[in-house]
Amino acid sequence: MSFRSYRMGVALAAGISAVALATGSGSPAAADSTITGPASQTIQTSNIALKNAIASWRSRHDDAAQSGGSSSSSGPTGTSTVAATKSTGLPTGLAYTLDFSMAQPYGDLGSQTAWLPGGMDAIIGYGVNPNFRASIDFYELQHYPVGFNSGTVPLYVQGFAPQISTVNLATAGLNATTKDRFMFVTASGLIRAGKLPFVISPVYLSRWSTVGAGGNDIVPFMYNGFPVYGVHARTAQYWALSVTLPFLSTPKMFGTFTLAPAWLNHLNGVNIENHAQLYEILYLEYNFDPKTKIFIQPQVSRDYLPPDPYAEINPGYFLGISRKVYKQAFVQLVLGSSGPTNYSPYGVYGLTCQGLPCSQNPVVPTVGGLKATQLQVELGVGTPSVIPF
Questions:
Q1: Which pLDDT band, with edges at 50, 70 and 90, does 269 fall under?
Q2: What is the pLDDT of residues 181-239, one digit of tens each?
Q3: Which end of the chain is more exposed for a tag (fewer CB within 10 A), N or C?
Q4: Pairing relation of β-strands 329-338 and 292-303?
Q5: How many domains does the chain have?
Q6: Is residue 74 assigned to a domain?
Q7: 347 lies in which domain range?
Q8: Of 228, 211, 212, which Cα lies nearest the Cα of 220?
Q9: What average pLDDT does this structure show over 353-357?
Q10: Residue 72 and residue 101: Cα distance in Å, rounded?
Q11: pLDDT, mean of residues 317-340
């Protein structure tokens, strides 16, 4: 069995529903683009904590140097410094973010040109003190994968090797519009090792989805040459432990690096193994002024969903700009893209009919790696938060 043959969906990770070819009607085909992962949500909180910790240390260091080592809350010239109980680490007290977004997909999408369904993000967190904070976060991410609605692919009958025909995907009725939902429960702890601060965050992540017009993610997918039915193809739960360290801090620029091993809460579907999968995230931002910044977040994530015997390796990136427009209100544009390197080709590359005549019976797509690129437009209040990968 090759990766291609069992990968009906990396998933179909989004899932693929049966397609009635002759009429062009039918339920959604599936999709996966993994631009989200169990470690990334912690980055925003970790970055704030590390910025505060570094600024606090610099302020105390400068005060000590200017005053000859005396400890004071203000320098010899009267310049105020960072208070010992304020902005020295993780945000304290209650904080929130609420935003609404829409997205435009890009790439080899065939006749798919419409904007994707809107989404919402909601985050609420509470910092007990500068060294400990907990939060619950909800994200919605919309995407449409390349190769699901373009090109001509062979049509097979289950159990027969030779193809019987070809199908134009643009007229096959495949609907791979996907909305992924994520809930994170996170605890963050700030630790200082001499001059170096870093943040450790245990994370629990639950994800679920809808694909196409079906209202859920229960869709058939091919594994080892046979269709699998009745599985929630984009539903999974994970545990992760992320560690975020700073590597750059200037008045205009800031950068961090995050490593996060993650495990499935339990095997499901055709999952085979469950050892730690390592997420790697680099974050770099440039601040034009106190209200405007650009950022880039390259990353290598792992997506492990029920149609995946083994986890996907997904290099990707977020590139964006955000601006505060009124008090706590913000607008943010984020271009994100990701696709697995260990499953190829991208998109649908074959259709298998489960019985003749194919015009009256379900046809299951065979899918390689699933890649998606989209521009997210977000309007919200609170602190802008990059959707994890």
A1: very high
A2: 999 999 999 999 888 999 999 999 999 999 887 789 888 888 887 888 889 989 999 99
A3: N
A4: unpaired
A5: 1
A6: no
A7: 3-67+83-382
A8: 228
A9: 83
A10: 46
A11: 91
User: Residues 6 or more apart from 75 whose CB is under 8 A from it?
Assistant: 62, 63, 66, 67, 81
**Among the listed ranges 71-75, 223-227, 242-246, 255-259, which one has the minimum average pLDDT value?**
71-75
β-bridge mates for residue 372, sequence order: 338
Stated pTM of the model? 0.81
SS3 of the chain: CCHHHHCCCCCCCCCCCCECCCCCCECCCCCCCCCCCCCCCHHHHHHHHHHHHHHHHHHHHHHHHHCCCCCCCECCCCCECCCCCCCCCCCCEEEEEEEEEEEEEECCCCCCCCCEEEEEEEEEEEEEECCEEEEEEEEEEEECCCCCCCCEEEEEECCCCCCCEEEEHHHCCCCCCEEEEEEEEEEEEEEEECCEEEEEEEEEEEEEEEECCCCCCECCEEECCEEECCCECCCEEEEEEEEEEEEEECCCEEEEEEEEEEEECCCCCCCCCCCCEEEEEEEEEEEEECCEEEEEEEEEEEECCCCCCCCEEEEEEEEEEEEEEECCEEEEEEEEEECCCCCCCECEEEEEECCCCHHHCCEEEEECECCEEEEEEEEEEECCCCCCC
Angle at 280 between CA 244 and CA 312, to 5 degrees: 145
Burial class (CB in 10 A: 0-12, 13-18, 19+), 98: middle
- Answer whether the bond into residue 384 is a cis peptide, omega within 30°: no
Residue 355 in any domain: the answer is yes
The pLDDT assigned to 250 comes to 93
Q: Please give the average per-residue pLDDT across 28-34, as a whole number.
A: 32
For the domain that residue 107 is a member of, what is the CATH number? 2.40.160.40
In a domain, 73, yes or no: no
Max CA distance (Å), the chain = 89
Is 192 inside any structural domain?
yes
- In the block, tokens 């004071």 appear at 72
